[in-house]
């Protein structure tokens, strides 16, 4: 009986730790499941708008091709975005955006053609 109680106590301690280590809370990158989710699209459009301001280009959002999210000091979006340039050619770009909902802010960390 004592052994069973010890086993139950050990399980109650280890199960939450396994959840945390397996990516529940430690910030492991997770694939974006719904690439057409309005929030994901808004973040991608923000990345293109910020890039256009910084580079004086005129890229136009087409779609999110793939991406991951990771909880760091906010939500980090690492995305591949298809965008159309001024000549109508569609290219893929890699963008990293950090969104801090509690501050209602986003920042473009990087943006490059791939």
Automatic annotation (TrEMBL):
It comes from the Eukaryota. It holds the Pfam family SQAPI. Keywords: Protease inhibitor, Signal, Thiol protease inhibitor. Transmembrane segments: none annotated. This is Cysteine proteinase inhibitor 4-like. Residues 24-114 form the Cystatin domain. It comes from Camelina sativa (False flax). Gene3D superfamilies: 3.10.450.10. Residues 1-23 form the signal peptide.
């Amino acid at each position: 009986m004592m052994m069973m109680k010890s086993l139950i106590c050990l399980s109650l301690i280890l199960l939450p730790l396994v959840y945390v280590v397996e990516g529940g809370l430690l910030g492991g990158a997770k694939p974006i499941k719904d690439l057409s989710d309005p929030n994901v699209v808004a973040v991608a459009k923000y990345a293109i708008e910020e890039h256009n301001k910084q580079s004086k280009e005129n890229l136009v959002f087409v779609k999110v091709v793939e991406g991951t999210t990771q909880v760091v000091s906010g939500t980090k979006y690492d995305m591949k975005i298809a965008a159309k340039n001024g000549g109508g050619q569609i290219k893929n770009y890699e963008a990293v955006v950090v969104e801090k909902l509690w501050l209602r802010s986003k920042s473009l960390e990087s943006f490059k053609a791939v």
